[in-house]
Amino acid sequence: MKIAVHDADKVATSHTMPFSERKVFHKENAFPNLVLMKLSAWHKARGDTVEWYQSYANDYDRIYSSKVFTFDEDDPYLSHSAIKGGTGYGLLSSLDEAVEHVMPDYSLYGIDYSMGFLTRGCIRTCPWCIVPEKEGKIRKHADIKEFAQHKKVVLLDNNVLAHEHGIAQLDRIAELGLSVDFNQGLDARKIDDVIARKLGKIKWLNAVRLACDEISQIESIETAVRNLRWHNVTPRRYLCYVLVKDVEDALTRVRFLKGLDLDPFAQPYIDPKGTPPTWEQKRFARWVNHKAIFKSCTWEEYRQGG
Fold it and tell me: Is 8 helix (H, G, I), strand (E, B) or coil?
């Protein structure tokens, strides 16, 4: 069979990624699509050929299109016969178990790191997050060796520290000598002394990522950072996501994070109906995220300057 795969997020070019998306994008603005890499591996193992979709070709036996982000426009040149999946198309699609647990075909994107989930779901019910509706309660998903083909691994778990399997995998990661990036962040409320000690034995591929979306999380952030630093969790930086709904509320959290020597990253709120952020929210995010500006003037000075 001749199989075509279509990365809808990579094809889309008319939108700028909003701060509400917590993925780390490549310079090509296309984070590798894990689903497509798994589908590619599954088909290749059965002797099928796999290639990127070309709109002018008409000899494909099957076409898969995957879209992660809801803000990306649909590709008008995509065949109507394509099998569509991913959050960008809807929350109900999922892979068959046989495909879900294959080693991804990393050659599809030519990347030198591995990607995957140790757990799926989350214990939280944050109103701005689609994970509870999409994935449900947290549960065990896979062992790190199921998808780790490289020494560098990007983990996509939504709340890896909220499940005993995820915590056990921290020891496994340290034993294997892997360098990891907890791409979706770590729940500061779960980082006690025991967890911090485990994280201190891990090699870090990127920043420690935390989140302070509400003022009620300030105490948890302070405790987590103290524990992490005590156990020498010292990657290049500590990044903390800051959800921006009420600007003054967000400013309180940003000042607190700056005082802890954390790197805040502001994300203007987009409600479930897709209502765009206000001009003030976007302006505040620009002040926080443009580090040269953030370090040279206060929010009040920036706002007065227009």
Answer: helix
pLDDT of residue 13: 43
| Torsion from C-alpha of 137, 142, 144, 146, nearest 10 degrees | -150
| Phi and psi angles of residue 225, each rounded to the nearest 5 degrees, phi first | -65, -40
pTM of the shown model:
0.86
Q: Cα–Cα distances in Å, from 72 out to 18, 65, 250, 272, 289?
A: 11, 13, 27, 15, 23
Distance CA(18)–CA(20), nearest Å, equals: 5
Residue 119: which residues within 8 A CB-CB, separation 6 or more?
138, 139, 140, 141, 157, 158, 159, 160, 162, 163, 165, 166
DSSP H helical segments within the chain, as ranges?
8-11, 34-44, 97-100, 131-135, 164-176, 193-199, 218-230, 247-259, 279-289, 291-296, 299-304
Domain ranges of the chain: 1-102
Q: What are the residues whose beta carbons fall under 8 Å from the beta carbon of 101, sequence distance 6 or more?
A: 142, 146
Backbone angles phi, psi at 36, to 5 degrees: -65, -35
- Residue 115 and residue 148: Cα distance in Å, rounded? 7
Q: Are 88 and 70 in contact (CB under 8 A)?
A: yes
Where is average pLDDT lowest: 96-100, 108-112, 217-221? 96-100
Tens-place pLDDT, residues 175-208: 999 999 999 999 999 999 999 999 999 999 999 9
Instruction: Say whether 63 sits in a helix, a strand or coil.
Output: strand
